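Internal tracking record. Fields below are filled automatically when a chain is submitted to the structure queue. Please do not edit lines marked as system-generated. If the sequence contains nonstandard residues, flag them in the REMARKS field before resubmitting.
Queue: standard
Priority: normal
Entity type: single polypeptide chain
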Amino acid sequence: MKVIIVGSGIVGSSAAYHLARKGAEVIIVDKFHQGQATAAGAGIVCPWISKVENPDWYALANRGAGYYPTLITDLKEDGESGVGYSLVGAIAVSNDPNELNDIEQKVRRNKEDRKEVGEISRLTSKEAQTLFPPLRDDLEAVHVTGGARVDGRLLTNALLRAAEKHGAILHTGEASIIVTNNKVTGIQLNGDVISADSIIVTAGAWSKQLLSPLGIDLQVEPQRGQIAHLKLQDDQDTSKWPVVLPQSSHYLVSFDDSRVVVGATRETGSGFDYRVTAAGIKEIMEEALLVAPGLSDSTLHDVRIGFRPAGPDILPLLGTISSLDGLVIATGLGASGLTLGPYVGLLAGDLALGEEIELDLTPYNPLRDTLVR
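SYSTEM-GENERATED OUTPUT FOLLOWS
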């Protein structure tokens, strides 16, 4: 079976890897627009602490977190070790004991059906600072050892390399989808026609423009996120520092090279305006230093911009289209891209092959009738 995947971010690269390992003929196409969300993102894999209360989101996120160990093992078997994933744990921080009580109770409930949560403990402010030294003095924490972080760029590149080892082919260019008798039959790319049995659209925030010529009004829009990378003085070893989750939409994620990533803005209505803004930098730095004032002497090393594909609600746009045979849509993951992405890619690949899906995809219908917020 021949499958074309339009979009090589975390969802598309995962779908390509999954399908190529199963022996499908895989073609990946990407225009490589500025602002691809996966390339900008610092991933947090710890849905058990999330404030999101939607059970359909949690069902997918829970499976997404549980899929990571299998994926990392498979990639290692294919010779990919530099995947940017590490099980460093996560701490939810607050100076309100009642808030932490609620978080701890929620995580303990979530552990009942998900062993990946790991060990759960309460930390004093000094214990929390031992794990993440720049933290503010009065912040206590709930510590979850099963939390992980992932570098979106490294993981996506590893998935693409591994997919190519299994025969997948990557093309650069802007694709247009060909439809014949209500069935997708291939794409036009750089003046050539490439045929396929199935097409998976994983073009992120650009999916709407790709599908519009087919009469599909996909409710997805770009949401700009600005993310700052800070380098610490004296080559501090940050490789084991846990993910820090304040009681806001912001976060702090440390990597191996004395680097702490802080962010991120959620700029709905931004369009594809690829710029670092004064207001964006002000927001992320104020939020970061409020939680971790010990970062004040760090160097502003880099600022990355990504356009999250924001759907009509918190849920991804995932599934097939009854009016077009052979088309699979997988986008709209919003701020949860690196938690959900590899697993959503796995599901998209199974849909393209016509295989049975273990999860009811009805809530994620890509054409569900909901207004974009």
